[in-house]
Specification:
Layout (H helix, E strand, L loop, with lengths): L11 E6 L7 H17 L2 E6 L5 H13 L4 H21 L3 H28 L4 H8 L1 H16 L4 E4 L18 H17 L3 E5 L2 E3 L5 E3 L5 H12 L3 E6 L20 E3 H9 L10 H7 L2 E6 L8 E4 L12 E14 L9 H11 L6 E4 L5 E7 L3 H11 L1 H5 L5 E4 L3 E7 L9 H11 L6 E4 L5 E7 L3 H15 L2
Parallel strand pairs: 1-2, 1-7, 2-4, 3-4, 7-9, 8-10
Antiparallel strand pairs: 5-6, 9-10, 11-13, 11-14, 11-15, 12-13, 15-17, 16-17
Helix pairs in contact: 2-3, 2-4, 2-5, 3-4, 3-6, 4-6, 7-8, 8-10, 11-12, 14-15
This protein binds aspartic acid and magnesium ion (MG).
Amino acid sequence: MTKTQNNDPKNTLVMKFGGTSVGTSEAMEKTLKIIDSAKNEWKNVVVVTSALSGVTNWLLKGAAKSSQGEMQSIYQADSEIRQAHEKIADKLICDQIRRKQVKQEISHLISDFINLCQAIAVLGEATPRAIDAVSSLGERMSVRLLAAALEDKGVAAQVVESTQLIVTDNCFQNAHPDFKATGKITKQVLQPVFNSGKIPIITGFIGSTPDGIVTTLGRGGSDYSAGIIAAALQADEVWIWTDVDGVMSADPRRVPHAQTIPELTYKEVAELAYFGAKVLHPKTIRPIVEAGINLRICNTFNPDHPGTRLIPDNHNNSKGAIKAVTTIEGQKLITVEGRGMLGVPGVAARAFAAVASTGTSVPLITQASSEQSICFAVPMEAADGVISALEDTFENEIIKRDIDRIWATDEVVIITMVGAGMIRTPGIAGRIFSALGNKKVNVIAIAQGSSEVSISMVVSQADANEGLMALHELILGEHQ
Ligand code: ASP
Ligand code: MG
C-alpha cells in the first residue's frame, strides 16, 4: 500500500502487531519480514506491539488469584509465559549472547510479576494500580523479544517503553491520554531513534501518569497506542496487523461466505467495534481521524491481501449500502411497563440509574412512543440483578400500579447491520424485514443506532443463526 495522492515521499508508517502476530515463532517470523520490507519503503517505520497472545490473560489471572491467596496459578503463569517467550527466542535468535540476554530480561520481568503478586497476596487485594503494574509486563516482554529477533536478522531496532511516550491520567485500567503532553514528548524521544537509523519497537497498551506510575489504556488497547503515537508523529499511515484479512462482512466462523470489506468509513468501523466484531479498539479512531491519518487493517498471515482501509465519513462511495452484519449473543431483553409511566418525566433516568448501579452496560434501548414501556438489553447473567435493582427503585410505582410489570425475556441475540449508505437508500428496512420474514425469523425489537449507520434487531436465540445467514445474503446480493 502506498501513499500516492501527491507523490510525496513515503514518510512515517506506524505498524501495530496484535498478540497472534507475535504469539508463535512462525507468526513472529512473518512479522519480522513485514517490518524488514516496510523499512525499505518508508523513511521512518515505527512498530507497536501487543503482548504475545494469551500472556495478558495469564498475568491478570495471576493478579486476581493472588488477591484470593491462591498462589498456585502464579507459578503456572510463570511457566506458560516463560515457555512462550523462550520457544520463540530459541527458534528466531541465532546469536547465543543475544538469546541469553533476552531470556534474562524476560526472566527479570517474570520475577517482577511474582513479586507484585506476592505483594497483592499479602494485601489480600489487587488495586487497579497494582493490576496495571502486572498487566503491563506482557508488552514489556514482547518488545524485547521482537527487537532482539529483528537485530538478529540485521535490522537495527530499539526497545522503547511507551511509559516514556504516552502521558495519561491516573484512571488505572482505562487511562486517558493527555494528547498535548504525549505529542511533545513522543517526538522528542523518537526523533533520535529515527536519526540513528533504528526502528523503535514500542510497547502497546501502556502509558504512565505525569509522576511516572504505569497505567494501561484498557483491554485491547494496543491499537489505541498505535493511534496515539501516529497522531503524535503526524504519521502518514497506520497499519494494524492482525490474523484475518481485514474487517469481514460477518464472522467467518459462522458465515462461510463472509468476505473482506475493502473500505469502511470511520463511523462504520466504530459501530462494528462496539457491536461485537472486535476488529479495532474503538478509541483508536479518534486520534487518527483528527490527525487525518490513513488506517489499514491487514493480515500478518496473508500480507499481500489489501485488507480493509478506513476512509473519511464523507467519502463513502463504495458499492452497497450495507457493509456488515454482526451479533451480540447471550442477552436478555428487560421491559419495564405500565400505564402510569405515560408522560412522567424521569422514569427512564431512574431506570438506567438502577441498571448502572449494578455495573451493567446496556447495548440496546427502545421505547415505544406510547411511553408505556421501556425495553433494553443486558447480558443474560446480569438480568436477575438488574430486575431486583429496578424493583427496588420503582417500589412505590409498583405498589401504586403505575408500573405493572418488570420482566425479562429468555435468551436473545442482537443482530446489527452496519453501513453508512443505509440512511440514504430507501427501502433498506423493508428488505431487511422481508429477508427475515421469508425465513420465519421473528423480530422482537428494533433499534437504529444514533450514528445512523446501523440498524439492530433482537431475535430469539433459536432464530439467530437463520437470521444472520439471511441478512448476510442481503449484503452479498448488494455487492454483486
Ligand atoms: N495485551 C493487551 C490485551 O491483551 C493489549 C492488546 O493486546 O491490545 O488486552
Ligand atoms: Mg490484542
